[in-house]
Amino acid sequence: MKKFAERHVGALIAWIVVVLAAVLLMPNTSALVTKYGQTKIPSSAQSQVANTIQNHWGHGKNNTRQVVVVFSNGNDKLTATQKRRINATINRLRRNKGHYQIKSMLSAQDNAQARAQLVSKDRTTELLQLNMSKHQGVRVQAANVKKAAKTAGVKTYVTGSDILNDNFQQSTEEGIKKTEIIAAIFIFVVLVLVFRSPVVPLISLVTVGVAMLASLSVVMNLVQYLGFPLSSFTQVFMVVVLFGVGTDYNILMYDQFKEELSGGLSAVDATRKARRIAGHTILFSGSSILIGFTALALAKFSIYQSAVGVAVGVAVLLAVLLTLNPFFMATLGKKMFWPTKNFTGGSRSRLWRFLSKNAVLRPLLGILLVGLVSLPFLLTYNNHLNYDTLAELSDSLPAKQGFFVVQDHFSKGTAEPSTLYIKTNNKKLDQEKYLKIIDRVTRKLQAKDGVKTVASATQPGGSRVSALYAKNQLQTVTKGSTKVHRGLGTINSGLLSAKNQIANSNMQSGLNGVTQLITGTNKLIAGTNSLQSGTKTLASGASTLAGGVTTLANGAQTVNSGTRSLANGASTLSNGATTLSTGAGTLASKTTVLASGANSINNAVGQLNAAVAGSANQMAQLSRAQTAMANMQSQMSALQKQLGNTSNLNAELSSMSTMLGQLADSEDNINSLVNALNGTGDLTNTINTLKTALGTVGSNDVKAEVANVQMIAAAKTIANDASASVASKEAAQKIITTAQTSSSSYLAPNISTLTGLNSKVSGMSTLASQANSLKSVASALPSKDKIKAIQAQIAGLQKMLSSVNSLMSEGQQLSAMSSQLGQVGSQMTALQTNLKKLQTATSSLASGSNALSGGANTLANGAATLATGAGTLTNGANTLATGTGSLASGATTLANGSTTLANGATTLNNNVPALTSGLLQVNAGQKTMYTSLQGVVGQMQQLQNGLGSASDGLNTISKGVAQSNSYLTGLRKSAAADEFYIPTKTLHSKTFKPAIKQYMSADKHATQLTIVLGYNPSSAKAMAEVKAIKKEVQSELKGTALDGATVAIGGQTATIADTHDIASSDFVRTAVIMLIGIGLALMFITRSILQPLYILGTLVLAYFTSLSITRWVSGAFLGEKMLTWNTPFFAFVMLIALGVDYSIFLMMKYREFGADGERPSVNIVRASEVIGAVVLSAALILGGTFAALMPSGVLTLIQVALAVIIGLIILVLIIPILIPAAIHLTYDRGKLSDDDTKEEDE
Questions:
Q1: How many helices, marked H, and strands, marked E, lie in the chain?
Q2: Which GO terms describe its cellular component (predicted)?
Q3: What is the domain extent for residue 438?
Q4: 212: Cα within 13 Å, side-chain hemisphere
C-alpha cells in the first residue's frame, strides 16, 4: 500500500477515469463553435441595433441570412443561351423555395430596377440574391444551393458573409488538426534531442494530451450548459498553449528530476524533491499564466473572452503535471531517460551566461544596445489592421472566388451592401411627410464620394423617380396654366365677338329658310304622288307593249303565209307605240314636278345657309356657356338627322349612267340594223317603239331607285331622332326594311332585265330590209352627245350626293363639338361650310332634274315619231317577208322580256307609297326643327347678357392664372422645388406598394436604405464612411418629424466597424487588466515592486518589436502588408502570458542563489547560466508548437505564430541583458570586475 501511494498509482487511476469521462461527455465541438463561436458584439452597438430591427422587421425576414449566387462568363458577355440556362436555374430554385428553405429571392428577371442592380455593366455577370432561413446550418444550406445553382456553361459561385465565416471556421478546424499532429511530432523530436531518450517525449505527450483532452471536454461542456465564452480560436490556442507550456513545464520537471537522480537519490525521493523544487516554480509560473488568461474574463468582447478557455486548460494542465508526472517518475526512475546513463546534472547555457555577464559589467551599454536595435521597429510600428475576413481564407475557396468576381464586375461594395435603418416607436412612415424626409436623407447620402448607390422607399431603383418631385410636377402645372391663360384669352375674345354678333344677328331669316324648306318638301311629296300616277301609266304601257310584242311575234310567224297578217301586226304595233308615247309624255311632266321640288329644296337650303352664316360667329361663342347652348345643340343634331345619309343614291345613279350608256349602244345597234334591213319600214317602226319603251322604263327605274334611296334616308332620320316616339321609330324601321327589299328584289332585277332586252333587240339588226324606216326612228332618239350630257349631269349629282354625305358627317361632328366650349366657333364655321356644300349639292340636284326632264321630253318626241312611222311599217309588209323567220325568233324573246318589264313596273308602282310616307316623316322633322329654332331666337338676348358677364369673369380669372403661373414658375426654378412629393393616390397605388413592402417593416414603423459603398466593405475607408453616414443621418433628422428616431447601420461593414471600435477599446482595457494581474502575481513571487516592472517592461518591448517585424515579414513573404485585426491581441496575450514564464524561471533561480549570500550581480549571472538552457529548450519547443499553426492557411494563426516566435526569440536575447542590467543598477551599484564571475566561467 505504501508503494501504491509513493508511486502515485491513485493519480494514474483517477486521470484514467477523468479521460474516459471526458471522452464520453465530450459534446460536438464543431457544432458548438458554429452555434456559439461567432463574434458577439454588445447589443448597444449600431450593427446589433440594426440586427434587432431586422429581426422584428416582419415580412418573414427575421432569422434570415443572405446568400448570393454568382453567374459569370469570365470577361466575356453572357450569351443568349447562357441567359436562358441561368433563368431556368433561377426558376428551378423559385419552384423549390421550400425545399431549399429560401424565404425570398431577387433576380434580374423580376423588374427593371432589379436588373440594373443584379446585372453587371459589362454584361458578363449576373447575381441572384437569396434570403434563407437560419434554422438550417449554413454549411448544409450552402452545399444544397451550390448543387442546385450549378448551371451548364456558366461559372457558378455561392457566397455570402455567413458562408465565408463558415469557411473560416472550417479552415480553422482543419488547421487545428494539422497543428495537433505537427506539434506532437515536433515536440517528440525536440525532446528526443534534449533528453536523448524516446521515453521522455512519449511521457510528456501523454501528460499534455490528458490535460488537453480533459480541459477541452470541460470547456465545451461549460459552453453547452453555462454559456461559457467560445470562438473559433479557443481550441486552437488551447492546443498550442497546453502543448507548448506543458512541454516547457515537463522539461523543467524532468530536468530537475534528472539532476536529483544524479545526486544519488532514489526514484521516489528524487520524484518528491523534483516536484517540490520544480513544482514550486511550475506552480508560480502557471499561476501567472492562469491569472493572465483569467483576467480576460473581464473583457467585454466575445473574442477576447473566449481565451478564458486557455485558463481552464492551464489549470487542468497544472493538475495533471503535478499529479500524473510523479507516477511516471517514481515508477520508471532512470528508465525514463533510457538509453541515457549519464546523470551528471542539469545543463548550462553559455549564451545566457555571456549576455548576462556583459550586461552586469556594462549595464547601461547593454540597455542602450537593446534600445537602439528596437528603436527602428518601434518607430515604424502602426496600428492599421485588416478586418477583411477574406484575407483569412485560401484563394482556392469557391466562396472567396465568387466574392472577388462580384467585386471585379460590380462596385466593391455590391457583395456586402450596408443597410441603414430608421426606426420610430409609434409613427407609420408610409406617409408623404415622412417619405419626404427619407428621400432627403437618400439624396444626401447619394451625394457622398464614398457611396456608390443608395436605394430607399422613395428611390427603389437607386435613382430619382422624376415624377415624384415638385420640380417636375410644377413644370407640368405651369405648362398647363400657360395654356389655360392663352385659352382664357381666346375664349374671352370669342365671347365678346359672340356678344356683338348676337346683337347684330337676325335669326328670323333662319326661321324663314326653314319654312321654305318645309314648303319644298311638301312639293316633293306632291311630286311623289304624281310619280305614282306615272308609274301606273308606265305599267299600263308596259302591258300594252307586251301585247304588241306578242302580236308582232304572231305576225312574224304569219308573214310567211301573207302580207295581210303582217299589216295586222303592224297596226297593233302602231297602237302600242301610241300608248308608249303617251306614257313618255306623262313621265316628262312628272320629272318636271320633281325638278320643281328640288329647286324648292335648294332655295330653302340657301335661305337656311344665309341664316346660319349670319349667326355662325355667334354660335362659335355659345359653347362656353353650355347651359344656354343645350337647346341649340339639340336642334343642330336634329338638323343633321333630317339630312340623312344619301350614300345609297350613288349606286343607283351609277346604274342610271350605265343604262344611258346602254341606250347609246342600242342606238348603234339600231343603225346597224337599219343598214342590214333596208325595205322593212314597218318593222323598223316597231323596233324603234320597243327601243323607246325600254329606255323610258329604264329611266323610270332609275328615278324610282333615287326616290327609294331618299325615302330610306328620311326614314333613317326619323329612326335616329331622339325626340321621335317609339312608334314612329318602329314605323321608320319598317319603311327602311321594305324599301331596301324593294331595291334589292325588284328595281335591281328590272335594270338587269332591261339590259338583257336591249341586247336581244340589238340582235335583230340582221334585218337589213328595215334600214330606211329604222334610220328615221333612230334620228328621233337622243343622240350620243345628249346621252353624254345626261351622264355628266348624273356625275354632278353623284358629286352633290358626296357633298351631302360629307355635310352629314360634319353635322355629326358639329353635334359632338357643341359640348366643347373652346371649339364651338370652329364647329359653327364647319357647319356654315357644310350648309354651303348642301346648297351647292341641291343646286346640282335641281340642275340634274331639269336635264333629266329635258331628256324625257326628247324621248316623248321620239315616241311620237315612232307612232307616225307605223303606217310606213304597213307599206313595207311585203318586203318583210324575207326576214320574217329571224323576226319571229327575236319577237318571241322580246315578248318574254316585255312581260318581265310589266311585272317590274307594277312592283315599282307598289313601292311609291312607301316613298311618300318617308317624305311625310321628313316633313314632320322639319317642322320640329322650326319649333326648336323659334325657342332659340327667344334665348338670344339672355345669352347676350350672359356672355358679357362671362367675359368679365374670364378677365378676372385670366389675371389670377397669370399671377399664379408667374409664382409657380419662380418656385419651380428655385431649390425649394427639388423636393419629394407623392400624391396620396400614388402612395397607395399598386405601383408604389412593392417599394413600401421592400423598404418598410410590416408595421411601417421602420424603414431601410440599402447603401452600396465604393470601397471594399472590410476596408478602413468603408468603416470610416459608415460612421460618417450614421452621424450625417442623425444630423439630417434633427428638427424634422423624425427627430429622435433610432438610426442604425447593419451589414458587414457596420459589423466590422463596431468590431474595430470594441476590439480597440477593449484591447487596451483587457491588456491593462492582464498586466495588472500578472504584475501582482510577480510581486508576490519576487517579493519586489521593481522587478515586476522590469519584467513587464521587457515583455512589452518584445511585443511591440515582434509585431513590427511580423508586419514586415507578412508583407514581404505572405503578400499581406497589414496584420489581421485580432493578431495584436492574441500575440500580446501569448507573449505576455508565456514570456513571463521565462522571467519567473530566472527570478526563482535568482532567489534560490540569493540564499548563498553572494552579490546580486553574481547571483543573477549564475541564475541566467543555469536557467538559460531550460529557457532555450522551452522557447524552442513553444516556438515550434506555434510554428505548427502556419500550415493551417489561416492568416491570423500564421501571423500570431510569427509574432510569438519572433517575440520568443527577442525575449531569449533581451531577458539575459535587460533583467541582469536592471538588477545590477538597482541592487548592486558597486563596480563588478571579470574576477567576480570567474567561478561561473570555470
A1: 39, 10
A2: plasma membrane
A3: 417-469+980-1050
A4: 24
